[in-house]
Amino acid sequence: MAKKIGQILIDHKAIDEKQLDEALTTQLKDERFLGEILIALGYCSEEQVLDALSEQLSVPRLPAFLALQNIPTIEDLIFQEHGLHPSWWEQHRAFPLEAAHDVIWVGLNDVFDSFVIEAVEKTTHKKVIPVFCSTFELRKLFSNVDTAKQSATSASSEDLDDSSAPVVKFVNDIIQRAISAKASDLHFEIFKGIFRVRFRIDGVMRVVDQPGLAMHAAVVSRLKLMATLDISEKRLPQDGRIRVRLAGQIVDIRMATTPTVHGENIVLRLLNNDSATHATKGLTMFPDQMDDLKNIIQQKNGIFLITGPTGSGKTTSLYTILNELNNEDTKIITVEDPVEYQMAGLTQIQVHSEIGLTFAKVLRSCLRQDPDVMLVGEMRDTETAQIAIQAALTGHLVLSTLHTNDAPSSFIRLKDMGIPDYLIKSSIVGVMAQRLLRTLCPHCKTEHPASVQRAKELGLDGIMQRFPGLVTEPVFYNAAGCDHCNSTGYVGRFAVFELLEIINDGEQLGELRSEELAALSTNKNMRTLKEDGLLRAAQGATSLDEVMRVLG
After folding, report:
1. What's the rounded Cα separation, in Å, for the pair 511 and 529?
2. What is 428-464 written as a DSSP string?
3. Span 322-370, pLDDT tens digits
4. What is the pTM of this model?
5. Neighbouring C-beta atoms of residue 29, cutoff 10 Å
6. Do the beta carbons of residue 253 and residue 267 sit within 8 Å?
7. 3-state helix, strand, coil in the chain (%, to 5)
């Protein structure tokens, strides 16, 4: 007797007994298949259910079929001669893969759909052999069909796309794939004649899907509903938040819509709740920078700033520092928009500007809560910066972020915001700039001796003399690409830093001009981002090309 689907999923560790019991209870009131219910509850993904069904029914999955066959080609005989147009196949979530003289292999999303099998057998006079296909795999197959062949019954295609079930499955599938690929952002973008989906993985954008234009409106509406945004408002940008459970994993998503000339674009930023644990693993710093950083965060008052563009890991670094400071003897309050990481022991406050709960208003309230350490998500305006500086001057350690290119530029940025020089010089205890570089895949990286000469031309010898002991024997590698890294040559990212510690050195800043800041950086023997990146490349952590791409 064949194993039941629930037991197979448990054996695969896709679900547990409690989740199966809940799904079975739901099935008593619901006519859907157990797999559909498990996917809807967010306990497992479509891929996991299809793998289990494949094992239970001994029906091959599409990748296994393709491994034994050539890439499928669409024959006019299959589509046109017998009246089975592409729109018919698409409407019934099926796809003709290969045909022999008396057999046709058909990719199906639902192998229990006897109507499709009987209809194909009747019209082609061939025996149907089913092959399991996921929703995404079917879309990829149909993307290869010549659009000229899809002239028939465009209305039926639109009806399919506008119905709720395919759109819900599409959105869930895309988010699930983004989580599996460890993407940080999802971009739904519409252009003239194109609707595409891109992921940002390790800081690099990649096109992952290109659904039909007819799906755009339905997908946008679905995402807006999930984020409780105004569906009818298409002229103004909107920001929202989504909390979903997919494959048993809770994921917070920050969503932003933008109106364009061709329609609305949507960007989703994935904020995995498990990421808080990553923020406690420590910073990827060289020992000399770590000593300076520990000296800074041990101060009882002052402002420590972390600078860098969006997506450079500033918040993760801040929470790594907070994790070091977090204990029963220290009162820590964070003011953020939004609260990206949740950490036990912290008082975390979410800013809501639309109801008047701004950074400045929350900060004033927080000062009456008697904190020892305060985290201000971002110094966005003069009022917020002034209150933060007042807090730093009255016995609080304040951590915050700024958007500047490097550490010394932070002083000029604060000056441009209208903060007097004497307040800046008396409150700032340190500034750290950072960027993220991709880590070379350990399975396929290849030694690259030619990079040694290139690194010397970039000044590596002088850097190693200024900072002895950090790198003993430079070894450079290049990215190659393999199955482990999806042929990119890189897996994950790490941070490089530029740290300027100025405790008791504020008087050296002078008039806060570029010349004085450059002189102070030289006197403090500050290592720039590019120099730090070159040392990391010499360690073999990343490639020289990656250093120059990000910091060159």
Report:
1. 24
2. EEEEEEEEEEEEEPTTT-EE-THHHHHHHHTTHHHHH
3. 988 998 889 999 988 777 777 888 999 888 777 878 888 888 888 888 8
4. 0.70
5. 6
6. no
7. 45, 25, 35
Radius of gyration of the chain (CA): 28
Residues contacting residue 455 through CB under 8 Å, at least 6 positions apart: 474, 476, 534, 537, 538, 544
What lies within 8 Å, CB to CB, of 109 at 6+ separation is 93, 94, 133, 134, 135, 138
Query: pLDDT for 440-495, tens place per residue?
Result: 999 999 999 889 999 999 999 999 999 998 988 899 999 998 888 878 899 989 99
pLDDT value at position 76?
43
Average pLDDT over residues 119-131: 85
As a whole number of angstroms, the distance between CA 1 and CA 322 comes to 56
The answer, yes or no, to whether residue 33 has pLDDT greater than 90, is no
pLDDT of residue 83: 53
Please enumerate in sequence order all residues whose Cβ is within 8 A of that of 89, keeping only pairs 6 or more positions apart, or say none.
Answer: 79, 95, 96, 142
Q: How far apart are CA 21 and CA 286, in angstroms?
A: 50
Q: What angle do the packed helices 287-297 and 314-325 form, to 10 degrees?
A: 60
Beta carbons within 10 angstroms of residue 142's beta carbon: 17
What average pLDDT does the segment 235-251 reach? 80
Q: Tell me, what amino acid is at 4?
A: K
Residue 62: C-alpha distances to residues 50, 84, 143, 170, 261 (Å): 10, 21, 16, 18, 38
How is residue 44 annotated by DSSP? Answer: S
Please state the φ and ψ torsions of residue 202, each to the nearest 5 degrees: 55, 35
Q: Which residue has the higher pLDDT, 109 or 288?
A: 288
Burial class (CB in 10 A: 0-12, 13-18, 19+), 514: exposed
Q: Please, are residues 339 and 319 in contact by the beta-carbon 8 Å criterion?
A: no
Instruction: Please check whether residue 507 is in contact with residue 425, taking contact to mean a CB–CB distance below 8 angstroms.
Output: yes
Residue 207 burial (CB < 10 Å; 0-12/13-18/19+)?
exposed
Q: Cβ neighbours of residue 195 under 8 Å, at least 6 residues apart?
A: 188, 189, 210, 211, 212, 213, 215, 216, 219
Identify how many contiguous H helices and E strands the chain contains and give both numbers. Answer: 24, 18
Q: What would the two tokens of residue 291 be?
A: 């000593």
- CA atoms of 531 and 431, how far apart (whole Å): 17
Identify the H or E element spanning 315.
helix 314-325
Maximum Cα interatomic distance, the chain, rounded to a whole number of Å: 89
What pLDDT is stored for residue 137 in this prediction?
Answer: 81
Other CB atoms within a 10 A radius of the CB of residue 209 amount to 18
First to last CA, the chain: 63
List the one residue out of 362, 343, 367 whose CA is nearest residue 351.
362
Spatial distance between the Cα atoms of 535 and 461, rounded to a whole number of angstroms = 10
The DSSP secondary-structure symbol of 215 reads G
Residue with tokens 């590596």: 460
